[in-house]
Specification:
This protein is α+β, with helices and mostly antiparallel strands. The chain is about 45% helix and about 20% strand.
Length: about 260
């Protein structure tokens, strides 16, 4: 997973999307169990089920603990330990050494999805308080000062997505103070069609990279949506003023599929 590049990623937007993404690894586990049952004698089923169950629980725990930002080397270490332990055990345990590899990979993906959902739910709904990077602040002046200060020192791979929420109105910025941000505003975070991404006018051709974690995973975005920190600050200031996407000179708020696709967990 280190030193990889990813295509544009769609982030989790709610419980429905979460369960849809969990469906794929769940089906893979069921298929794996069916293969084991059909290919191994009945006496091997108890150790097989133990290996699948323990491996799944351990890897889900790793994915949940490391979340979106890693470190991803922990799952590789877990798989290596599982394989090494099983190889030194007698039959039939030794014969299942390689089974823990797909089991742990599937469990790790499931754990990460749970971590993503938990991260989104930390930004709780409040009709009266501003939620600045997970911290509720009732006074708008104090919330604005805190938000601008946090944004100026934000580091995406370490800190994740910068989020400010009032009720169902939402400001998001992915990036860092040194490299710039991809900025979104949603008038209703329950409805992705209300989400807009900040775009330079005129649009620029080509793509630029954004760091998705601290271990080399990157995404590619149109160069016109990667805005300097100073512009992200203006957009954030406008969000506090209007609770929406305030027009900025030289920039445009673009909705549609691109705005939804250019969100990162």
């Amino acid at each position: 997973m280190d030193n990889q590049e990813s295509p544009r990623l769609k982030a989790a937007s709610g419980p429905r999307e979460f369960w849809l993404r969990m469906l794929i690894p769940a089906v893979l586990i069921i298929v794996l169990l069916m293969v084991l049952v059909g290919s191994r004698p009945g006496d091997d089923m108890v150790p097989a089920m133990l290996i699948v169950g323990v491996g799944l629980l351990a890897s889900v725990a790793v994915g949940l603990r490391t979340g979106a930002t890693g470190p991803t080397w922990v799952i590789y270490l877990l798989i290596s330990i599982e394989v090494a332990v099983l190889l030194v055990l007698p039959a039939p345990w030794r014969g299942f050494a390689l089974v823990c590899v797909p089991v742990s990979a599937i469990g790790f993906l499931m754990g990460r999805e749970i971590a993503f959902l938990r991260a989104d739910r930390r930004h709780e709904f409040s009709p009266t308080s501003w939620i600045v990077a997970g911290e509720p602040i009732a006074d708008v002046t104090a919330a604005k000062q805190q938000a601008l200060s946090r944004l100026r020192s934000w580091e995406s791979p370490r800190d994740g997505r910068f989020i400010v929420v009032l009720g169902h109105r939402r400001f998001e910025a992915w990036g860092g103070h040194g490299e710039g941000f991809v900025v979104h505003v949603a008038n209703n975070d329950r409805d992705l069609s209300t989400m807009h991404v900040l775009n330079r006018v005129p649009h620029q051709d080509g793509e630029v990279s954004v760091a998705l974690d601290g271990h080399g995973l990157v995404g590619w975005v149109p160069s016109s949506v990667k805005v300097p920190t100073s512009v992200a600050e203006q957009a954030l200031d406008g969000f506090f003023e209007t609770q929406g996407a305030k027009p900025l000179a030289g920039w445009d708020w673009e909705g549609g599929a691109q705005a939804q696709e250019l969100r990162f967990l």
